[in-house]
Automatic annotation (TrEMBL), chains A, B:
Lineage start: Bacteria, Pseudomonadati, Bacteroidota, Cytophagia, Cytophagales
Keywords: DNA-binding, Transcription, Transcription regulation
Record-annotated membrane-spanning stretches: none
Residues covered by the HTH arsR-type domain: 8-103
Alphabetical list of Gene3D superfamilies matching this protein: Winged helix-like DNA-binding domain superfamily/Winged helix DNA-binding domain
Keyword match Transcription regulation: yes
GO MF annotations, alphabetized: DNA binding; DNA-binding transcription factor activity
Keyword DNA-binding appears in the UniProt entry: yes
InterPro entries in the cross-refs: ArsR-like_HTH, HTH_ArsR_DNA-bd_dom, Metal_resp_trans_reg, WH-like_DNA-bd_sf, WH_DNA-bd_sf
Superkingdom field: Bacteria
UniProt protein name: Winged helix-turn-helix transcriptional regulator
Length: 107, 107
DNA sequence: ATTGTATATCGCAATATTACGATAAAAGTT
DNA sequence: AACTTTTATCGTAATATTGCGATATACAAT
């Protein structure tokens, strides 16, 4: 039905899925990578860099901000977006906790 | 439009997004975790474990198999699913390559 | 042979996501 | 003040995802 039955799963599982979803679109991956390279960037930079419309970029930035991976500070008429270092480490740890659960062999 | 403009992004970025998408649903996270705990499991185990219909579980298993994270071997009338160790390490490395690109400070 | 178990796939309905034009709001520029 | 730049949000269309009932197939058991 397109609706996820979130109540069937644990808090941790839902959180893991929500965080992974932030990385599940190439535009958001590209935004993150550009943000890392440039240290910081603004919406209109990304409109140039990627070939997407301003409204679309803004929407992706909001999703990344909502999950906490990036943060934006107002700078006059523009927004200065950058990685949120604390959250970044936290998310990396979250993934590695899952990855490290599997040690070894298979059937 | 719901259509992702994959041609705007690099191969690596599209791959990263595709892999992240595998983890972007709590049912798939739950399947992976159960698969790790049990070492291996079958479709009907998961129907019991999670509260989803058999057809739904099967669909999620297929998506995980398509991205290569899990593999299934036929065992009589059932499928024995388990983590694909090689691919698992590869995916972990893929995430950490992205995570390690960001070192340090922010705006 | 018939019945039961296990899984995959099809078809559909409900919902979510992606993309963008249009517009609004806020700050800087002339 | 009028204009430009920058961004966010709204509304909408196109497409994707999620979930499941209803099958179909394959093997196992009686």
């Amino acid at each position: 039905m397109g609706i996820t039955k979130a109540d069937l799963f644990s808090e941790v599982q839902n959180e893991m899925a929500a965080v992974a979803k932030a990385f599940s679109h190439p535009a958001r991956v590209a935004i993150i990578e550009h943000l890392i390279k440039a240290n910081a960037c603004i919406n209109s930079d990304l409109v140039q860099e990627l070939g997407l419309a301003q409204a679309t970029i803004s929407q992706h930035l909001r999703e990344l901000k909502e999950i906490g991976i990036i943060q934006g500070t107002i700078e006059g008429s523009r927004m200065n977006y950058c990685i949120n270092p604390g959250r970044w480490k936290q998310v990396q740890a979250q993934f590695n906790t899952l990855f490290d659960q599997f040690k070894g062999s298979c059937c």
